[in-house]
């Protein structure tokens, strides 16, 4: 067998497990702090995170076909398979269409 081995039924084994657990938690906290400070520094420089609003090129391109298939009676899941989109994207296209054309 390889790796660290210790017996958790002994006091020494329990101590080792506790120390390793505390170190792992500490390492996770340090990583979280570094990420947060990096994000804050980037935002201070004016970096904007996420995609641009309204940027849905594939779903916008396929919207007419999606709406045609939905109106023909296909389920959202079937339409998604036919046009290679998720059913949630199909639902989003239908919702946007209904809100634009009530």
Number of domains: 2
Main beta-sheet strand count, sense and barrel state: none
Q: Helix fraction?
A: 55-70%
Number of helices: 4
Question: In oligomeric terms, what are we looking at?
Answer: single chain
User: Helix-strand pattern, N to C?
Assistant: HHHH
Residue fraction in strands: under 5%
**Overall pLDDT, averaged?**
90
Strand pairing plus helix content: what structural class? mainly alpha
- How many individual β-strands? 0
Shape: elongated
Low-confidence stretches: none
N-to-C span: 67 Å
Rg calc: 26 Å
Describe this structure in words.
With 102 residues, this protein is mainly α. It has helices at 11-44, 57-71, 76-83, 87-100. The chain has 2 domains: 1-49; 57-100. 70% of the residues lie in helices and 0% in strands. The protein is elongated. The protein starts with 10 loop residues before the first helix and ends with a helix.
Short description:
This protein has helices at residues 11-44, 57-71, 76-83, 87-100. The chain has 102 residues and is mostly helical.
Q: Which helices and strands appear, and what pairs or packs with what?
A:
Blueprint (H helix, E strand, L loop, with lengths): L10 H34 L12 H15 L4 H8 L3 H14 L2
Helix pairs in contact: 2-3, 2-4, 3-4
Salient structural properties:
mainly alpha, single chain, 102 residues, 0% strand, 2 domains
